[in-house]
Amino acid sequence: MAPLLNIQNLHASVEGKPVLNGVNLKINEGEIHALMGPNGSGKSTLSNILMGHPKFRVTKGKVMYKGKDLLKMKPHERALAGIFLAFQYPKEIGGVSLEEFLLAAYRAKQKHDKPNDPPVLVFRFKAMLDELMKKLKMPEKFAERYLNVGFSGGEKKKAEVLQMAVLRPDLAVMDETDSGLDVDALKTVCAGIKQAMKGKSVLLVTHYQRVLKYLTPDFVHVLKDGKIVKSGGKNFAEELEKKGYEAL
Amino acid sequence: MKPSRKNPSPGVFSGLNRKTFDHHDSTGYMKKFGKGHSEELVRVISEDKGEPKWMLDLRLRAYRHFFKAPLPSFGPDLSKLDLDGICYFAKAADKKGGFKSWEAVPKEIKNTFERLGIPEAERKILAGVGAQYESEVIYHKIEKEWARQGVIFLDMDVALQKHPDLVKKYFMKVVPITDHKFMALHGAMWSGGTFLYIPKGVKVEKPLQAYFRMNARSMGQFEHTLIIIDDGAKGHYIEGCSAPKYGSSALHAGCVEIYVGKNAKLRYSSVENWSKDTYNLNTKRAILSKNAVIEWVGGNMGSGVTMLYPASILKGDNAKADHLGIAFANAGQIQDTGSKVFHIGKNTSSRVIMKSLSKGGGQSVYRGDLRIAKTATNAISQVECDALILDPKSSSETIPNIESANDTATINHEARVGRLNEEDVFYLMSRGIPQEEAEAMIVNGFINPIVRELPLEYAVEMNRLIQMEMENKVA
Fold first, then answer.
1. A chain contacts of residue B7, beta-carbon cutoff 8 Å
2. Residues 5-24 of B with CB under 8 A from A
3. For A54, B65, B209, B225, which has the most beta carbons within 10 A of its beta carbon?
């Protein structure tokens, strides 16, 4: 069976500067992959390119997703096809509440997946949202706040996971979702990811090994200077922790 | 989530589209009315209305002043406005005092207001409604309950006949005919408009609305609105306006005069959506007594050139003014809008929040005038102007004038200019929302603090109008 996501020899640049220099990565359905590496290795770039960030330019290579050329799709088409990016630095959008934004996103996805179904009723959506928020230990009032405006770092990360849980993607790219969270929040967030992504695929982009205690990856990759320099199984992460990236 | 402002259940104004505004009825009635202004025309208008002599005298004084007064020395270029090509007075239905019911209104005119959602709004949410078509009010009605409590809500021409003393006492006193050139022209040519009087202590909770519609090419509309809120009373007045697009100049020079009595409160909301070939040179001014409150909530979407600066004169101690406004300047539009606040009484306070949008080469200007008189001890004023520029062709400017003659005043002025951020749009798109919708969402979020102050139905209308401007791709 063809992989869900197949990144082949991907090269990319930002403002003329090369950041990815031939990335190869296959992710199958139901797999959790951890992508690790030092600062500036290109982890965030790769995450953003998968979502179609306008700032990055792909100069070479191919990305196939569900058998389609992902790079030809617009960001919203990628989302509708089941890709989700949890942003490292989510944007603050004034005047738009978290719940009305998520309702619009949910309805867009629903219209795409089941065009003949009537749009979800507001109260049903609200009930679902309430439940997911409870699981993530977010206060109810949060839904009415403007999207990420004035949220703390941890609150922003939780809100990203909430969005993921609402939209139920097939492939979630978590860009340093674990950074800036205390241990309790980290546990809650990982439990949330686990539950929402059961049987689905996750690309966990992280700097730290500690998140892997709560979300066990099937594969671990190290990205360095815009290339995957080494890959391994779940034990590879521990090895990395001891030896550091420098040894690679 | 209540029926949200951005996800409305189908409402009164949800069917509005560009065609609604650009549709125009047949204009056969225009054959009777010529273009251009003259003293003779001023006399004809006054005679047609059967006005008392003092009103004719006022018109003639105003007309003479019109020639003396110069064009404004600031703001947009008005040299292309051909005042001889404007039709100053036209009646389509020719029915003095308007019709008693919508059924009696000529079908074509009635259909126009139906499309604009006015009769439905009257049935569902309003305490009263007035509808003006060209120079005449064709329908004006208030719910019996309010009429019984002494609320007067009339066509301005009818009010002059029925309540001449009240009108004479207040007419063009807070905005004198010498105010500026277009107020002189207004004083000479005025026709129609609304008269609202809310007696002492009466609190009208439901809004009262007037809708002003221009239909024919090169029309000039000069409606006069006079609102008197007596001591301890409360009201909410809403004004809507629109006109079809022809490609030749039309002129709107309305005048709104508002008197808010002691401990009284008025909210004045307006959604102005004149066609892109209209010069909207409108003057609105309120004078406030002790402890009085005025709230201006306005949206300016239409017009080629707008010059509109609602003014509050805080004469009484503790009087308070809120000015909330949105201006959207699209291709070929100049939105020169703002506010004027004059603090005279002690402990008076004002708050101005203006949001402007510029797109497709449109120019938006915030022009503010804030004066604190020597007598205005402990005055407080806060001004916030936010501009959102949607593309590199468009522009925005802030021109505030602040003069204070009292050291105890607290004045705070903030202006921010931002551009539509590609990364914000990407963030929303990454959740499955198409680009145009994502941009509209950011724009709606930007204006939300103002729009939320409107009644739900009008908030929906405003969002719909903004959406139409966002979709409007001008080649």
1. 100, 103-104, 122
2. 6-7
3. B209
Distance, CA of B194 to CA of B151 (rounded, Å): 13
Name the domain count of chain A: 1
Identify the domain containing residue A52 by its residue range: 5-247
In 3-state terms, what secondary structure has residue B207? coil
Beta bridge partners of B237: B208, B268
Interface of A with B (CB under 8 A): 51-55, 74-76, 78-80, 84-85, 87, 90-91, 93-96, 99-105, 108-109, 112, 122, 125-126, 146-147, 163, 167
| pLDDT means over runs of 10, chain A (248 residues) | 94 94 97 93 95 95 97 98 97 94 96 94 94 94 95 94 97 94 93 95 91 92 94 85 75
CATH number for A105: 3.40.50.300
The backbone torsions φ and ψ at residue A138, rounded to the nearest 5 degrees and listed phi first, read: -105, 135
Cα dihedral across residues B60, B62, B65, B66: positive or negative: negative
Measured between beta carbons, which residues in chain B are less than 8 angstroms from residue A112? 432
d(Cα B188, Cα B376) in Å, to the nearest integer? 35
Q: Which residues of B touch A75 (CB under 8 A)?
A: 426, 429-430
Minimum CA–CA partner of A95 in chain B:
B445
- pTM equals 0.86
Name residue B312's amino acid: S
Tell me the per-residue pLDDT of A65-108, one tens digit each, with 9 for 90 and over.
999 999 999 999 999 999 999 999 999 999 999 999 999 999 99
Task: Give the whole-number percent of chain B exceeding pLDDT 90.
Answer: 79
Tokens of B400: 């505030």
Distance CA B375, CA B365 (A): 31
> Tens digits of per-residue pLDDT, B363-397?
999 999 999 999 999 999 999 999 999 999 999 99
Nearest residue in chain A measured CA to CA from B6: A100
The residue to which tokens 């892997």 are assigned: A212
φ, ψ of residue A10 in degrees (nearest 5): -80, 125
Task: Say if residues A117 and A110 touch (Cβ distance below 8 Å).
Answer: yes
Neighbour count for residue B115 (Cβ, 10 Å):
15
Give B298-323 pLDDT, tens digit per residue. 999 889 999 999 999 999 999 999 99
CB-count burial class (<10 Å; 0-12, 13-18, 19+) for A50: buried
Is A194 exposed, middle or buried (CB count within 10 Å of its CB: 0-12, 13-18, 19+)? middle
- Rounded-to-integer distance, Cα B94 and Cα A158, Å: 65
Among the partner-chain residues A80, A95, A108, the one whose CB lies closest to the CB of B448 is A95
Cα dist from A220 to A31, A203, A229, B188, B195, whole Å: 11, 10, 11, 82, 76
Classify each residue of A143-155 as buried b or exposed e, where b means 16 or more C-beta atoms within 10 Å of its C-beta.
Answer: bebbbbeebeebb
